Amino acid sequence: MYNLHCHSLLSDGELLPSELAVHYAAAGYKAIAITDHADYSNIAFIIKAILEFTRHWPKNRKIIVLPGIELTHLPPEQFEPLAKYARKEGIKVIIGHGETLAEPIIPGTNRAALEADIDILAHPGLITEADVKLAKKKGVFLELTSRKNHHDTNAHVAEQALKLGARLILNHDSHRPEDIISPKDSIKVGLRAGLSQKEIDNIYREVGLFIAKKEGK
Ligand SMILES: [Zn+2]
Ligand SMILES: [Zn+2]
Questions:
Q1: pLDDT at 108 over 70
Q2: Which pTM does this prediction carry?
Q3: CA of 206 to the centre of ligand 2 (A)
């Protein structure tokens, strides 16, 4: 079981990266990505800090920790240069903070993020068919989330992705210890979005392959 979207003290989360890793391992997860909010003001700092952490995280621990980042509330034209920069520096999981209905997101954000070199489009709200097709073409995961408010459009995202063949991922977008839900409850998020158990198994298989690739295995 995996969660590739969580926030630490490096942005607006409550836990240190090490606390996140230990909490997730205790909850039964095999891998996480720590993906703090970044824009031009803090991206260099976050990348340096999370790479320092993951470089020192012992390989023999029970949980894999991938260095990530969430490009958040950017003017759309900044997704491309910042994703490129994060990739070059060694960030493995790049998330675009998509057009959730719960926040005032700049229109065109889903499209600009998908055109950049991202891995996951988080909470993409009422994503259009054209953008789902672009996600499919680029192999970008569209996120179903357990996070309150953001999860309101999960059923739409799941339906469109299944219809058009785009990849899905189940994530927590966790900020506090209470957001670290059990693997069982993660599966419930998928079921509630209208997925079958078989479709959810497929998601975890695909995400497992993605993690193995990022780990260089
Ligand atoms: Zn946040
Ligand atoms: Zn987030």
A1: yes
A2: 0.97
A3: 21
